[in-house]
Amino acid sequence: MSADIDELLPDSAVNLDIAAKDWRDAICLAGNALKESGFTTDEYTDQMIETVEKMGP
């Protein structure tokens, strides 16, 4: 069983055509959209950044 991304997340959880200053800003913008939609927390966004810092992109 598989689902398309548009079946899992509402449009408000995904931002398109938004400029990010760098990769950290891109993660923050994406994390904020997910948080505002009720899917994640600030801590999750922080963990995404930590993971990229440790493991690379």
Task: Note the overall shape.
Answer: globular
N to C succession of SSEs: HHH
User: What is the number of E strands?
Assistant: 0
Task: Report low-confidence residues grouped into runs of 5 or more.
Answer: none
Q: What is the rounded Rg?
A: 12 Å
Task: Determine the number of helices (DSSP H or I, runs of at least 4 residues).
Answer: 3
Give helix % range: 55-70%
Major sheet summary line:
none
Structural class: mainly alpha
Strand percentage lies at under 5%
> How much is the average pLDDT?
89
Kindly, what is the distance between the CA atoms of the first and last residues, rounded to a whole number of angstroms? 29 Å
Task: Provide a quick synopsis of the model.
This protein has helices at 5-8, 23-36, 42-55. With 57 residues, the protein is mostly helical.
